[in-house]
Amino acid sequence: MPRPTVARIHLDAIRHNYRLACGLAGQAQAMAVIKADGYGHGIGPVASALAGEARRYAVACIEEATRIRAEGLSQPVVLLQGVHEAADLPTCNEQGFEPVIHSPRQLAWLKEKSEAAPRFWLKVNTGMNRLGFRPHELTSVVDQLANTGCQARLLGFVTHFACADHTEHPMTAEQTRLFEQATAPWPALMRSVGNSAAHFREGQTLFDWSRPGIMLYGGSPLESRTGLDLGLMPAMTLEAPLIATRILQPGESVGYGATWTAEHQTRMGMVAIGYGDGYPRHAGTGTPAAINGQRVRLLGRVSMDMLAVDLTQAPAAGEGDTVELWGPTVSVDEVAMHAGTIGYELLTGVTARVPRIYQ
């Protein structure tokens, strides 16, 4: 019998969160961002769960888009990194994939494959400084597209916000202004801004298409707020069995490095999950978990296959009980805060050793 350490994926929660994103997007439509294996939830099941609602998907790369087609789904799929070689462009054209073109190299590939060019977007670098053309370069870029016969395949423009997770940060307004100004000469083309965080920024325009990602899975895109605070439903419950209990006497420690020592008699338990499963190693003493709806705390260091919890607040807990590492009682965002990271990393980091069970 396999170890009952599993990630339960709640597809209704994903649909709820997508509908919330649509409501917050106002006049814009929301393309569902399901890259990184659906943020660790399974790209195929997530895409299928949203098939009746999402009119566009967004992923990072062509291999992710291909997995959506393997589910029998026909919606356009935006490739946020574009393509990685010219030979992929005809495939995009055949499959309805829409690469985001962000570099002179990719422009050259479009010229090379102009007869089989797919519909595509242009990335505008408004300050994130990862990918994209600077605003003043757009006119020249569009002229190049006209000269190669590819301008008719241009769908529109995208940009990405650097600081939208800080709702009052002035950079988001400045990026919005630059993007609107840069794309104004082409009013008939579509525009897309708006990661999850921008949906919660009061008065933020999202133009034609927003791109909700982490919020679809119940994680918070905002600093110091949990998904539950924002009305989101957790889409993953990570759980593992309690496999041993013992009573530690004052002065006894637990785990590698003996980083936690009992000050008084303490009943503790061992849970069959660790960093080999994607649980964060840096989540130390005090990180919350839950047993039968009762919150408990971690003790000491997380091992590869196990971690320890304090059972003081769950006196009835016994071997075989299920421990929630994150889910409806303990937000993944809380665990991330204790581990010094973000919920995105935790959700995408759950390893293949943990079976996904779809509900």
UniProtKB/TrEMBL annotation:
Catalysis performed (reactions): L-alanine = D-alanine
Keywords: Isomerase, Pyridoxal phosphate
Gene Ontology terms, MF aspect: alanine racemase activity; pyridoxal phosphate binding
Group of enzyme by EC: isomerase
Transmembrane regions listed in the UniProt entry: none
One family name in Pfam for this protein: Ala_racemase_C
One Gene Ontology term from the biological process aspect of the record: D-alanine biosynthetic process
CDD domains linked to this entry: PLPDE_III_AR_proteobact
Lineage, highest ranks first: Bacteria, Pseudomonadati, Pseudomonadota, Gammaproteobacteria, Pseudomonadales
Gene source species: Marinobacter persicus
Name of protein: Alanine racemase
Function recorded in the entry: Catalyzes the interconversion of L-alanine and D-alanine. May also act on other amino acids.
Involved pathway(s): Amino-acid biosynthesis; D-alanine biosynthesis; D-alanine from L-alanine: step 1/1
Residue numbers bearing the N6-(pyridoxal phosphate)lysine modification: 35
Necessary cofactors: pyridoxal 5'-phosphate
EC numbers for this chain: 5.1.1.1
Residues at which substrate binds: 130, 304
Family: Belongs to the alanine racemase family.
Entry-linked PROSITE patterns: ALANINE_RACEMASE
Recorded superkingdom: Bacteria
Domain Alanine racemase C-terminal: 235-359
Gene Ontology cellular component terms for the protein in this record: cytosol
Active site per the UniProt annotation: 35 (proton acceptor), 256 (proton acceptor)
Keyword Isomerase in record: yes
